[in-house]
Give the backbone structure.
Amino acid sequence: MPDGAGQRELGRLTLLRRPTFWLIGIVTLVFAFAPFVGNDVQLRESLLLASIYITLASNLNLMLGYAGYINFGSIVFFGLGGYICVWLMNSHAWPMAAAAVAGGIGVSLLALLFGLGILRLRGAFFALSTIGVNEAIKAFVQNFDPWGGSSGLYLSTELFRPLGGPMQALWIIYFLLIAVMGASLYLSYLVKNSKFGLGLLAIGQNEDAAAVLGVPTPRYKALAYSASAFLPAVAGGLYFFKSAFIQPADAFDLSLSTEAIVIVMLGGQGTIVGPALGAYLYEEMRGFLLTSETFSNFQLVIAGALLLVIVLFAPGGLMGWIYGRWPRLRRVLE
Amino acid sequence: MSELLDLDGLTKSFGGVRAVDGLSFVVGEGEILGLIGPNGAGKSTVFNLINGVFAPDRGRVVFRGIDITGEAPYRVARSGLARTHQIVQPLTAMSVLENCTVGACFGRENLSLGEAREAAVEAAVMVGLDDRLALSAAALTIAGKKRLELARALAARPALLLLDEVLAGLNPTEIDHMIGVIRRIRERGITVLIIEHLMQAIMSLSDRIVVLNTGQKLAEGLPAEVANDPSVIEAYLGDPALAAELHGGA
C-alpha cells in the first residue's frame, strides 16, 4: 500500500519536527556533558541519581500515566536486572554491556509472563499484586544461593579493568545510564505518538469502553508492563555494577518504587516531560535534605506529604498546572 | 436478503433472574431492525451478549457466518461489529477527534494512526461533530456525547452497528437530526440493530421490529403489524382491556 507507506513517512517527519523530540535530545546531551566538561564528580553523582529516577519514573509512567495501572512494585525490574547483570559478569565473565542487556531482556520476558496473569486484576487488586511480585522475587533471591542469598553478591574490582580502571569505568557507566535515560524518554515519546499508545490511553480512561472499541486490552496491558520493565532493568544492571555490590534489601527496596510514583504524580502522569521534570526536582530536593543530616530518609516524609497535596489539589501534577496556565504549551511540551 | 447476524437460542441468567431466555432472531444485511420492549425486558443484555461483554449461558451468536459466541469484545469489534452505550462512555481526557480515532484504529480495517484520523474526521462529519473536533469529550453536552458514541462506532467502519438508545435524553430537534444520521448510515450500507424507547421514532425508522418481554421474544414483524399486536400492547400497558380501549381511542 503506497498510500499507507507515504502516510507513515509523513508521520515520522512530523515526529521529528516536534519540539519535544529535540528537547529530549538536548536534555540528554546536557546531562552527559555538564559534569564531563569540568570533570565535576559530585555533579556527576547527583545527575546519575537523577537519571535513574528519570528512567524509573518515565517507564513507570507507561503503566501509571498511559494505561492507568498503578505499579507499586516497579523496583523489582531494577533489582532483578541488577542481579542478572552482576551475576552474569561475576560468575560467567560476560562483558558489561551484554550482561546489562541480557538482564533487560530477561526481566522484560518475565514481566510479560507475570503481566498476562496479574493484569487480569484491576485497581487496588492490581496494585497489591505488584507489591506481591516484588516481595516474592525478593524472598526468592534471599534464598537463592548462587546469588549469595540475603548477604548478596560482591563484585571483584578486577571487573573494572576491561573498562580502563575504576575511574574511567565510572564515567563509562555514567554515559550509559544517561543513554538509558534518553532511551526511556524517547520510548515514552514514541509510545505516546503511536497506535499502541492511543490504545493504552484509552485503557487508562475507560478500559471497558476501550475493549468495546476494539483495543486488545489484555495484550496491550501485558506489552506495556513488559516494555516498562526493559530499561529499568538495564539501568539496574549498570547501577549495581557501579556499586560493585548488590543485596536484596537494596535491590528490591519498595520505598524507591513509591518515590517513583510520587515523581510521576509530581511531574504530571501521562505526559512525556512530566516524569523527567518531577524526577529532577525530586532528586534536587532529596540532595538538599540529605545534606541537612537532621533526619535520615526525610525525603520519604516529604514525598508522602507531596503525594497527598498533588492528589488533592493538582492531580495533573506540574505539567497539568502548566497546561492549565499556558494552554499553548501543550503542543510544545508533550 | 442474506443474514448478517444470527442469534440462536441465547440464554443468560444473572443469579436467579433469567435476563434473556431462548432468544432467536436474524438481522438481514442492510436492514434497520428495531429491538423494543418494556424496561427490564433484557434488550441491553442482548447487546452485551452479541458483542461479548457477557458470554451467554446457552445459545450461539453467528456474525457474517462466523460463530463469535463468547468472544472478547475487542475481537468482536475487530470483526466489524460496533456499538454505542446506553449510558455514554466517552474517553473524557481525550478530544472528540481522539475518541473517534480510537474507534477507527481498532475497528474493522485495522487502520494506521494517520488513516484512522481521516476515518475519524469522516465519522465526525457524518454525525455533525466536525465543528468540535479539538474539544475535550468531557466538555460535550449530553446530546454531543450521544453523537460522539455514534461517531466513534462509525469510525470503525463496521458492517453492523448496534445502537443502544441513542435518542434518549435528546430534545425534538436533536432527535430529528439523529434520525437523519441513522438513515444516512444505512444508506452507506451499514446494517443497524437499534434499541429505542421512543415508539414514534423507532416505528418510522425500522424495517422490522422484534419485541422483547421478560427476556423472550414476544413478537416480530413489520412496524405496523407489531404495533397492532394485542400481546405487545398488553406487555407495554399491562391491561389488555385498557390497551384495547386506548388503542381504539387513538
Strands of chain B lie at 3-14, 17-28, 32-36, 58-63, 66-67, 81-83, 160-164, 191-195, 208-213, 216-221. Chain B touches chain A through 31 residues (CB under 8 Å).
